[in-house]
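Morning F.,

Quick status update on the modeling queue. The single chain you submitted on Monday has been processed. Sequence for confirmation:
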Amino acid sequence: MKRVYLKTDFQERIIFSCTQWIKNNISSGRGGLLGIHGAPLSGKSIIINRIFRLNSIPLHSTALLDMTTHAMFYNPCQALLHSFRIPGDIASWPRTVVIPKFLENYLRLSPLRAVLIDDFHLFKQFSAKDKNSFNSFIVRVSSPPYNISFVVAGNLASRELQLYNWGQGKSKTIYFTSPLQTSDQVLYFANGIIQSRNWNNNLVLSEEMAADINKLTKGVLGEITKFLSLMYQEAIKQRALTGVDLVNVSSQRYRPPDV
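Structure tokens below.
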């Protein structure tokens, strides 16, 4: 299924702010740390991937790491090294906070200036040793002479980034994703999903239905998409019937978000 990006105001604001922050850091030769916090399915991954694909950031200057893939590697530092697209044997990465010479040379000479990390809350699942290595590495390379900018997105506790000793003399900002607030916003977003998936012939929303969906899903983007999928399935099953309340029928199969 083709993935379609549907703009929302809060996502566009965060994307713009993060992009400007990265570009300003690149032009001024600074590094730093920036976080994007949000509940599950609130659009954080969309934001990170959109930033990664923007043409306004210099080509090859950003790397993308999805923390859900870290289990493929010996430790999280190896996963980060892999995201840098460094050729060679990633198994040579040592379990130490010392930056290997080959990596030091790469960071000095490569165009890489920013690293985007998705699902960063998985950091807490690492062993104490891996946490220390990963944290020390990020703090080290965001400082001179490397000056790499890190944008991390995840379901982060309000004090979590501080626990990683980030922000001591560095640029540290946290943005918060937010759910849709009004039924009009939900109707606009939901209609975009319906059109992008060619569900138009079987699923038509009213403002009243959008208001009900907003209450059920609490305006969370991923939850709205999940609920629309249930509605579409019910519309196919019930299309021979008239007067079916699709929102009510679908809600019986839906598990509301705990946010």
